[in-house]
Amino acid sequence: xxxxxxxxxxxxxxxxxxxxxxxxxxxxxxxxxxxxxxxxxxxxxxxxxxxxxxxxxxxxxxxxxxxxxxxxxxxxxxxxxxxxxxxxxxxxxxxxxxxxxxxxxxxxxxxxxxxxxxxxxxxxxxxxxxxxxxxxxxxxxxxxxxxxxxxxxxxxxxxxxxxxxxxxxxxxxxxxxxxxxxxxxxxxxxxxxxxxxxxxxxxxxxxxxxxxxxxxxxxxxxxxxxxxxxxxxxxxxxxxxxxxxxxxxxxxxxxxxxxxxxxxxxxxxxxxxxxxxxxxxxxxxxxxxxxxxxxxxxxxxxxxxxxxxxxxxxxxxxxxxxxxxxxxxxxxxxxxxxxxxxxxxxxxxxxxxxxxxxxxxxxxxxx
Length: 367
What we know:
Layout: H1 2-37, H2 45-62, H3 64-81, H4 84-90, H5 95-98, H6 100-137, E1 142-146, E2 149-156, E3 159-171, E4 174-185, E5 191-202, E6 206-216, E7 228-236, H7 241-249, H8 259-269, H9 274-284, H10 286-301, H11 310-336, H12 342-366
Antiparallel strand pairs: 1-2, 2-3, 3-4, 4-5, 5-6, 6-7
């Protein structure tokens, strides 16, 4: 028990050390990226650094598998150099048994990543997008899918606009909304225009409306008498094709606790929920994938350094980890496109990774 606690403490300290190093690198690189991204806007360094801090949790969440591999490599290379693994085996413990403590810590970190880090990432990514839109366009833009349809909010120099659509169609040429209602607000004032349209297609910095009717909402003007109908109408927008597609397709801004209710609402509204379902199941399977990454690192470094080839073993562990990460992402894409079942796309890669690395460990330990 004491030896297990010792290994667990060493592994956790390695994880904290490598996490701190990568967090520092992420902050340094991201602040440069923010300076480039907002070079044409008049904002100070404090605002840019705030954006960098908001994007940091998402970056750490993304590289957790790499942190697990490197933490395992650092732990077992250090144990091998100090001959502690040799002493451990001399006491009658196998190398597989010595992995129990690091695997337990990795499992706990995975559970914390799903239960705590995931909601933090969802909140900080949404806040980052709101502030970024405010700094660029003078007002935030937002997108929301619910049982009541699709909601969009866009900001600009001319004020804010709230867009509601009963549904949308994603085509090769872009996104088209149907049964659209647009309510425009003047800067610092109330609503000044209401638009109903049959469809609205997102173009280059503009919405192209068809069969639209516009009501002016100004003091002293009868809205119905001042209404105008247009077969085609264009209105400016600060939303981009990539932003809307990313918001529609990737549920990263939704907490894992809110995903089940969101999926039910989308199903009731008739929207596709495969991407949300795959993402939800993949998040639940993440602790197993982090356990697999620990096994990957151990499979190549649980040997004495006198055999040589430590650098090649570390490189092989990192490359195998990247390969398994790529396979996991590829399986999720297949699941999102309906090529394979949702459960298979989310759970098969981590389970297969665990069996693969266990096979490598058993071969290395028992021959």
